[in-house]
Design brief:
With 142 residues, this protein is an alpha+beta fold. The chain is 31% helix and 27% strand. Strands 1-2-3 form a three-stranded antiparallel sheet, with no helix packed on it. A three-stranded mixed sheet has the order 4-5-6, with helices on one face. Helix 1 packs across helix 2. It holds the Pfam family OsmC.
Length: 142
């Protein structure tokens, strides 16, 4: 798969201190959070963790992509939600990897239309494009 060239519209910058057990802040000061490993991984669970931050970003981005494809299809997605469940675990090679399950609830369209919209959103979403071919991403309609 070739690396796709983009016309950059925005760049976010964040800095981590002390890895998964420290702090992450954005260059503009709008994000400043304590990060800790979850209890399931031996951490305190006192702060957020990188997987929660990734899930938040992916769900928000996917919801935005859903809006783009819904407008093109003239579909009513008012009241819709997108949930991203990001799982972290060991890979067969001994490292760590991620899996994502995206679930969309789109109450004002039928199930077939909802499925079509999330599949199209998956082609538009920058997070989906970044992860495609790298990690397992499942799509579902609630």
């Amino acid at each position: 798969m070739a690396i796709q060239k983009i016309d950059v519209a925005y760049t976010a910058v964040a800095t981590a201190e002390n890895g998964r057990d420290g702090r992450v802040s954005s260059s503009d000061g709008k994000l400043d959070v304590v990060v800790n490993p979850p209890k399931e991984m031996g951490g305190s669970g006192a702060g957020t963790n990188p997987e929660q931050l990734f899930a938040a970003g992916y769900s928000a981005c996917f919801q935005g992509a859903l809006g783009v494809v819904a407008r093109a299809a003239k579909a009513d997605i008012s009241g819709s939600t997108v949930t991203a469940a990001v799982s972290l675990g060991k890979t067969e090679a001994g490292g760590f990897g991620l899996e994502v399950a995206i679930t969309a609830s789109i109450p004002n369209v039928d199930a077939a239309t909802a499925q079509e919209l999330i599949e199209k959103a998956h082609q538009v979403c920058p997070y989906s494009n970044a992860t495609r071919g790298n990690i397992k991403v499942e799509l579902a309609v609630a």
